[in-house]
């Protein structure tokens, strides 16, 4: 559905994205992860057609995405607006829903009101009077109810309390089952949201350092724990992403296929192998190393 080929983007002399290539396929939920300032929002704005890719290509159904009317109608980017934009918006929530119905072909107004009831959002309130949590809820409702082929949430959960976030995750999964489409979710709440993801993309240094299915990604991250000397020998030649030592015990986290030989040796020497949670894997792959 969306294909990125050799995408580069910079602000002045600052390079943000470098030779990024990837795909977003119909019917999948993508988790987009990365530390602050690595280019997640820039990439999402390019995918939404809000910016033009000067180098490389972004295609929607095999045609250039920027200024493509089909893409404009199919892709929505939902995010928390800044305080100035929010303060200047005197519209009532219900009017925002009705306006979305006018401009979005598949917007389900009844579903939007149903979600508002579930989230305890008063649709008679004006946008500039909403708390940040309810502003986030409004953006979530607009994204879910629009039923666009490509729905992008850029850290839209900011300000939402735990019960509201849990409801958001549940509704997102239900929507994907009822009306499959591409969801792209940018988040720092990795451990809380990883159950949503079919695919995971991690941005670091302007490129995807991980671009895998969720299952493949977590299967590649393992920690070997046991006798320090044995663990050191077994992990030679592997991609080590984290090490911890306590006395004669060593824990080494590696990324990549372990191989049968390593697994057999671990079993022989009583070296424990544990799969890394996605959040730990994300932190290890992106932490700065001196």
From TrEMBL:
Q: Which InterPro entries match?
A: AAA+_ATPase (IPR003593), ABC_transporter-like_ATP-bd (IPR003439), P-loop_NTPase (IPR027417)
The superkingdom of the source organism is Bacteria
Is Membrane a UniProt keyword of this protein? no
Q: Does the keyword Nucleotide-binding apply?
A: yes
> Keywords assigned by UniProt?
ATP-binding, Nucleotide-binding
**Example of a GO MF term:** ATP hydrolysis activity
Q: Which residues belong to any copy of the ABC transporter domain?
A: 2-230
Q: Which PANTHER family match?
A: ABC TRANSPORTER, ATP-BINDING PROTEIN, SKFA PEPTIDE EXPORT ATP-BINDING PROTEIN SKFE
Record-given protein name:
ABC transporter ATP-binding protein
